[in-house]
Amino acid sequence: HSQNASIFSKRLGALRKSMGKGIEMVFVDGPIVLLPVDLDGASSTASLAALGASEANSTSSDPLTMPRAWWKSNPEKTVAHGLEDSLLFFRDILQRDRYDGVFGFSQGAAMAALLAALLERPDSYPPFLIDGEAPHPPFKFCVAVSGFKAPGPLSAETFGTSYSTPTLHVLGRNDVIVIEERSKVLLDLSQNKRLEEHDGGHFVPSKANWREFFRNYLADPLRAVPSPELRTVSQPAPED
Known about the structure:
The chain is an alpha/beta fold. It is 32% helix and 12% strand.
């Protein structure tokens, strides 16, 4: 929400470079262009900075800086206006090419998880089907950074009680935009989940340890990749 493909690609520049030639990341613009009125009434510059998209400009005609979204919410965050159109937008993309998985941040993470769930049960939204079939096989993995469950009945119907795509959830312990309670709803729906946390806020962590972790995870999501964060592990004392 409020970033776009160009901005997100630049934000992940160090991560992309660390991937090498074996992993290609494809960035997609959300189809909804956000106007100043969509940015919570505060000054659009302040709102964009708070959302982690200070490079965006809601009054610009430059497509590289236009803030975009996958849907627009009401103040209570209970509806997702435009979500159906975004899913059809993805349907057409997925029909053309094949992808191993999906990586999203914030509203993009919510969209990534919803898309993963929809590919598991595409009949839950019939317009997503092409000639009665899903446009793409289920993803092998999903990465949701600062994610949450998309609002509204379409999301509820698609997720049901759970979804099974292996999902890496990455949360910031000091994230004040997507707080832990919102992320926990998505976590509870995720059958095959891995949770990693960082000490920062609302951003994709990109220090060297995290770049190495993401690279190794994306190369083989089912492998037991060591955590990027140091942890204290207690072990039983050896017997005499």
